[in-house]
Amino acid sequence: MTGRHKAEGHRNMLAFDMHVLAGLFRDYRGAVLLLTFLSVPQVAEGILMVRLSEYLTNEVFRITDEGFQGFLAGVALFLALLLGIKISGWVFDRVYNGYDRKVSIHANEALLDKISKIKYGYFEDTETYQDIYMAGEAPSCYVEMLFLLKAWFQCAFMLIVYLIIVSRYHMYYAMAVAVAYLFLGAAVKISTKSWDRFYEKNVVAWQRKELYFEGILSNRINHSNIQINRQLPFFAGRYEESADMERKNTLKFNLMSAMIQLLSGLVFTVVSVCILVAVMMDVASGRLEIGAVTAVCTILFSALSYIRGLVDMFQQNYKYRKAIMAYEKVMALEEALQKGVPVPDQKGSGLAIKEIWYAYRQGQPVIKGLSGCFARGEKVAVVGENGSGKTTLMQLLLGLLEQQEGRIRNSVGKAAAILQDFPEYALSVRENIELGRGGERMEEDEVAEILKKVELWDAVSGLPEGMDTQIGQLAQGTEFSKGQFQRLAIGRLLADRESDVWILDEPTAYLDPVAEIEMYWNILNLGKEKTIFFISHRLGFARMADRIIVVEDGRIAEQGSHGELMQTSGKYAAMYETQREWYDE
């Protein structure tokens, strides 16, 4: 639950189930003890029903007028006990539902908190991303797994009790039932491996695709593009295909359980018929009373029901176990330090990168032995073609990713950034700015000043509630354009008083080239003492930088001022010439 236990090492299913129970008992001892106590009468219900059927049958055949009141008293006792069991079951359901909500909420909060803290690099790993996806189902699985384990123990206990009761009539009957039990256990054990492979490959994979295409179709921005470009049939078709395959594979997964149920049911039915014939022969010979027939019938039918339930529970418990294992893997992941760029080194005076390498698990190295030194307060333009490694380099500087080789020494300070995929928060204008300070309440004049600096004040001051106006559709708010959301992102950067390094990855992508240059001048004036890294494919801003570095194939291919690089007629000069007309008057 809290991440103190890892899923690794729990290869034995029963051991892992006990591990989950121990965790629940540790965190919710009172509720688990109460549920366990309330479960005891429910276990007794099966035994009581067997005894009742045997009692009624025997007494009906030998009842007399004098013994009728005693017979009624016996029936009344049985009914009173059954009523007590039903009442305890009702109380169990009420306690269980409240416990379920409490555990689910707590586990979900813990998972969301953990996901917000884990290292960004985990999201770049396919296997870990799959665990994060599956872990989202775990909060509702913990209590369900507890309920299934309770039912499993109840079934196992009752089957053993039935075995003991049957042995009272004849040891051969018990041996026949035991053989049927062993057959069931072997069939489930063999099937578990195929369930594992099938569920991972054919159910979970299609569920992810279904949710992905559902998200595309339900997203407002995506929807406008889909309509304009007549893409609805394509995405609707992909969604329907994914949903259909997920449904079919889930059905197949359930059919695998049904086949085990059918096979075990057939074996147990054959065994049951043989036992019943033998019992009736013993009754006919006078060795057993007539009540033995009804008692054995009740036992065998109940046992068959329990056997079917056990197969279902094995399958359901398998799915819950997979989700909880993924949850515990996620909860055990290493958390990122909340520090921006790597820990400041007070001995230096800038930011030094020495021979760093980085490769995503899915591909070849993206950063290849890159080195560079940057002075405190220096303004650096980072340019290069798509896929050259610019964004990965900035993520390494931010500490979102960790270099696999080399070293980053920082003596500048903490960092704040505007990344390519900036969020569009459905909050008030004020709250959008205050997030730059971690949500801390800011004075109205201070927020207004920032809005003026990012050229949003005129638009915001004319709104009905000014800077307290809600944005987006969450609360029937005012719609902002992509460019306005980008200006709010820049405003959050200005609100951050702790950062000494600003990293701006395509911060003005939704502004026209002229507005982009004006915004860059504004940022430079506001961040005179900051160390600033700019990334953009539009190179007009690069002329303002103290230094330009050209990243190519994961290395710094060129560096220098705008004038120096234009004189070398290298990569930067060629790139700038293709865009010159955008900036020349």
Account of the protein in words:
By secondary structure, the chain is of the alpha/beta class. It folds into 2 domains: 13-331, ABC transporter transmembrane region fold; 350-424 and 480-583, P-loop containing nucleotide triphosphate hydrolases (Rossmann fold, 3-Layer(aba) Sandwich), CATH 3.40.50. It has 17 helices and 9 strands. It has a 6-stranded mixed sheet with strand order 5-6-7-3-8-9, sandwiched between helices. Helix 15 (513-526) links the parallel strand 6 and strand 7 (531-535).
Key terms:
disordered N terminus, 62% helix, alpha/beta, 6-stranded mixed sheet, Rossmann fold, 3-stranded antiparallel sheet
Secondary structure layout plus pairing:
Elements: H1 13-27, H2 29-62, H3 68-115, H4 126-135, H5 141-169, H6 171-218, H7 220-228, H8 232-284, H9 291-331, E1 350-359, E2 365-375, E3 379-383, H10 390-398, E4 405-410, E5 415-418, H11 429-434, H12 444-453, H13 457-461, H14 482-495, E6 501-505, H15 513-526, E7 531-535, E8 547-552, E9 555-560, H16 562-568, H17 571-583
Parallel strand pairs: 3-7, 3-8, 5-6, 6-7
Antiparallel strand pairs: 1-2, 1-4, 8-9
Helix pairs in contact: 1-2, 1-5, 2-3, 2-5, 2-9, 3-5, 4-9, 5-6, 5-9, 6-8, 6-9, 8-9, 12-14, 16-17
